[in-house]
Amino acid sequence: MKNVTILGAGLVGNAIAIELAKSFDVTSIDNNEKALEKLKSKCSKIKTIQSDLSKEENIIELTKDAEIVVGCLPGFMGFYTNQVLIKQRKKVVDISFFPEDMFELDIIAKENNVCVIVDCGVAPGMGNIILGYHSKRMKVER
Q1: Cα 48 to Cα 34: distance, rounded to the nearest angstrom
Q2: 103 phi and psi angles, rounded to 5 deg
Q3: Is 28 helix (H, G, I), strand (E, B) or coil?
Q4: With 100 labelled, which of 63, 116, 119, 124 sits at a CA distance of 20 to 30 A?
Q5: What is the DSSP string of 66-125?
């Protein structure tokens, strides 16, 4: 079974953790104790950790055993967090929408030989990925 660590236990991070816990060992990390308690009340098998994820050393320590990291942090934390995770050679799927150029992460990911999927939220995110896929294959009018 894969160890999945989810950074952020907000509304979307909470839903992702519950769904993934059906098939994986899930650890959810957030600074908000109430969010973690709410998550734990919905799915007791999820391990929860309260921590300040704005600190690099916390990200590194708390994700060291993760085989996959799911980023569900606010956008202002997304780019930095992904940089830290990539340098630790972590596989990442991230739903945060950040203002920085995501293609800068591509360079770092290639240097570290790791797969990172960013901007993978619902909208924008997956909608853009799906539209881009089909736009290359057909004429998209609307």
Answers
A1: 11
A2: -70, -15
A3: strand
A4: 63
A5: -SEEEE---HHHHHHHHHHHHHTT-EEEE----SS-THHHHHHHHHTT--EE-S-SIIII
Which helix (DSSP H) or strand (DSSP E) does residue 40 occupy?
helix 33-42
| pLDDT one-digit tens code per residue, 64-101 | 999 999 999 999 999 999 999 999 999 999 998 888 98
Tell me how far apart the alpha carbons of residues 93 and 75 are, in angstroms, rounded to a whole number. Answer: 14
Give just the sign of the alpha carbon dihedral 69, 78, 85, 117: positive
DSSP for 49-69 reads EE--TTSHHHHHHHHTT-SEE
Q: How far apart are the first and last CA of the chain?
A: 41
Angle at the Cα of 43 (from 42 to 45), degrees rounded to 5? 160
Helix (H, G, I), strand (E, B) or coil at 136: coil
